[in-house]
Every structure is written in structure tokens, then in C-alpha cells.
């Protein structure tokens, strides 16, 4: 297990993926299917639609059974197939986050996953969960 990252630190993960950018974009933003590549996570779209628009509200539960945490968020920017920005509004994770996809060629792209200033009671408390962020993004099917 890697070192804990303080909750006040930004999390930025980039990953090259051997798949077209538009395919990867679709996988990243298929909110209900994120559990296929983000272990122990279930994402629900709150309200009508598929969550692929500004103003969409999402809930992500990460954990097993009742042991885990709820990450609520609102989509604040939507620029397919390049960029999705959210505002995390939960008690544990708060602040802006980004999924961005940059084409590197017809069959390859780079994914950026960024969570800025996640909040937690006692903003400097280390939280082991962020040390696994890279593993989750690397599980995106190519």
C-alpha cells in the first residue's frame, strides 16, 4: 500500500489508453457502468436523463455494503468528447473534478483525471483511498 496523500493535496492521474478518444470518452462518462472499471463503486444518475449534460446530478457509492462513502456531484461543464467537469458536493469529497480525453492518434488517447482540493473534516487528515486513484483509472477498458 502506498503512502497516504493528505486530503488538501490535488490528485492528478494521466493514463495512455490504446483506444480511440471517443470510445474512451463514452466509457468514462457512462456513469452507471463505472463500477466495471472503478472497483467497489456504484454510480447513479439522479433525475431524468443519462447524466451527460451540465446540471446533471450524480451519486457515487464506494465501499462494501454499508462500509464506504457517498460522493455526490453536479456536472458543471460538458464538452464531449474532450472534457467533463464536476463539482463534488459530499461531506467527504468536495471541490472540482475533471475527466479529460486528448486524442494522440486514431487509436490512442490520453486520459486525465483530476480532483482538486478534496475536503474532509480536518482538511489535512491523510486518507489512504487517494493512493489507489491511479489503479482505478488504469482499469478503463481499452
UniProtKB/TrEMBL annotation:
Q: Where are the transmembrane segments?
A: none
Show the coiled coil region(s): none
InterPro entries noted in UniProt: Polyketide_cyclase/dehydratase, START-like_dom_sf
Which is a Pfam family this sequence falls into?
Polyketide_cyc2
What is the name of the protein in this document? SRPBCC family protein
